Amino acid sequence: MAVASINERLIFGLKLKFFRQASGFLLQDLSEATGISISYLNEIEKAKKYPRPDKINAIAKALKVTASELSSKKLPVHLTPIAELLDSQFLQELPLELFGIDIVKVTDIIAESPGKVGAFITAILELAKQYGQESEHFYLSALRSYQELHNNYFPELEASAANILLSLNADTSVNSLQLFLGQHGISCIETDFSAFPKLKYFKSIYSENSKTLSIHKDLNEREKRYILAREVGFQFLGLNPRPATNIPLKVLSFDILLNHFSASYCAMALLVPETEFKKDLKSLLELPTWQPSILIQWIDKYDVAPFILIHRFSLLPRILGIDNIFFLRSKLNLQSQQVEIDRELHLSRRHDPHANRRREHYCRRWLAIRVFDAFHENDESIIIKIQRSIYHYSGNEYLCIAIAEKKNDKEWISHTAGMLLDMKSDTQIKFCQDPEIERKIVNVTCERCDIKDCIERVTEPIILNAKDNFKQIQRQLDKFLDT
C-alpha cells in the first residue's frame, strides 16, 4: 500500500474522531473494542499514522459504520471548511518549514478543534479575497516575514558571494560577469524585445531551453551589472525553479520567489561585499557630522544603484548590534501626484511607518516622501536626505536616511532606511547629534492625524473624526442608560 499523504491522514483522523465521539466512545472504549492500542488510535486521530486495511475494518465494525464510509475522502458537513482548506492546497503552499513549523503540528491544532479552526482559516481566506489577494501575495508576505525573522542577513549567501568574488579575482565588471556566465554555458545577448512589444518593459528574460540571458539594450552599465550578477547567483547557487523575467511575472510557488530573492541577495553581496562595506559603514557612523556626499561616493565606488546601498544597511546589526531598523520604498506618480509605498521591511519589530493603510494619504512629513521635494529645487538625478522623525502618538524617534532618484519621466522612487534611536544607537551613531539634522514630528496618514495647522496635510482627518464621533455617541448612550 502506498504511503498516505498528509491530507489523507488528516481526513481519516478527523473522521475517526467524529464517528468515535458520535458513538459516545472514549479512546479507551475503542481500544478495548478493536484491540488497537490507545496510543496508536491517538496517533491516527492526530494524523500521524494511517491504519492498515485490517485495522480500518476493525475500527469501522466497532463504530458501526462501513469501512468505505470511514476511509472515504468525504468529510461531514460541519467539517466543510476543512475540506475546502485541504482542496485548496493552502497548507502545502505555505513554506512552514522555513519558520521551523512542522505541518503535523498544524494538523494537530486543526484536529483538536476542526470546526473553529476551519472557520477561522476560511474567514482569513475570504478577507484575502475581498482585498484582492492571490496566492502570490501570501508568498510575498511569507518571504517578507522570512527576511524579518533573519534580520535580512543570510550568512550562507554572503559566503557564496565571497566565493564568487574570489573566482572573479574581485572583477565584477560587465565583461567579467559575462565571461563567468559563459563558462557556465550561459549566453548573454542584448535586445530591445521589439518583436515582442508587450515584453519591452522587462530588463531581462532568461530562456532555460537555449541557456540564454536576453538583456534589454537600453539598460545602463549599473543595471546590466546587477542583472548579470543576479544571473551569476542563479547559476552558482543552482537555484531552480526560477522566474524567466527579472521581475517574476507570475509566482506559481514559494520556491520560485525564494530562489529569486536568494539570487538577488547574492548579487547585492557580490557587488557590495560585506567586509568592505562594513568598513565604510563604520567610518560613516564615526563622523561627527552628517556627510551625504559620502553616500554619493559609495554609489560611484561600488557602481551600483541606490537601492542596493540601502539594502546593504541590513549589515548594521552585525556592526553595532543596532537591529531596530525599517526599510521603505516609495513611488511618486508624477501625473497623479499619488504616493505608493510598495515595499517595506521591519527588523526586530513592527515599526511606526508602514504601508498598511489602503487608499489613505501617507504623512507628507515622512522623509521617504519629503525627499521628492528636493527635485523641484535642482536638476540632480539623485538626492540624499536625512531626518530625525518623532512619531506623534508613540513618541518613537527614528534616524531616517533616504535616497531618491528620478526613475523616468513618469515616476520618482525613494529608498529609505530608518533606525530607532535609543540610548545605544544615539551614542554609537556619532553624527546623530549634528544640529543640522532636521527634527520633524510625523504621523501615519492624514486621515488618522490630529496634528493642528499642518501645512503638509492633503486631506482632513476623516477616520479620526469618525472615531471621535463614535466615542461621543458611546458616552451619551452610557449616560442615557445610567439615568
Structure description:
- By secondary structure, this protein is of the alpha+beta class.
- Helix content is 47%, strand content 13%.
- The chain folds into 3 domains: 6-132, lambda repressor-like DNA-binding domains (434 Repressor (Amino-terminal Domain), Orthogonal Bundle), CATH 1.10.260.40; 155-271, Arc Repressor Mutant, subunit A; 275-458, no CATH class.
- The chain has helices spanning 6-22, 27-34, 38-45, 53-63, 67-71, 80-87, 90-93, 103-112, 114-130, 135-149, 155-167, 174-183, 221-237, 254-271, 274-285, 293-302, 306-312, 316-320, 367-370, 423-428, 462-482; strands at residues 187-191, 204-207, 212-216, 325-333, 339-346, 382-391, 397-406, 411-420, 439-442.
- The strands form 2 sheets. Strands 5-4-8-7-6-9 form a 6-stranded mixed beta sheet.
- Helix 8 packs across helix 9.
- The model has no long low-confidence stretch (mean pLDDT 86).
Which runs of at least 5 residues are low in confidence (pLDDT < 50)?
none
In round numbers, the mean pLDDT is: 86
**Helix residue percentage:** 40-55%
Distance between the amino and carboxyl termini: 74 Å
Give me a quick take on this structure.
The protein has 483 residues and is an alpha+beta fold.
Tell me the layout of helices and strands.
Elements: H1 6-22, H2 27-34, H3 38-45, H4 53-63, H5 67-71, H6 80-87, H7 90-93, H8 103-112, H9 114-130, H10 135-149, H11 155-167, H12 174-183, E1 187-191, E2 204-207, E3 212-216, H13 221-237, H14 254-271, H15 274-285, H16 293-302, H17 306-312, H18 316-320, E4 325-333, E5 339-346, H19 367-370, E6 382-391, E7 397-406, E8 411-420, H20 423-428, E9 439-442, H21 462-482
Parallel strand pairs: 1-3, 6-9
Antiparallel strand pairs: 2-3, 4-5, 4-8, 6-7, 7-8
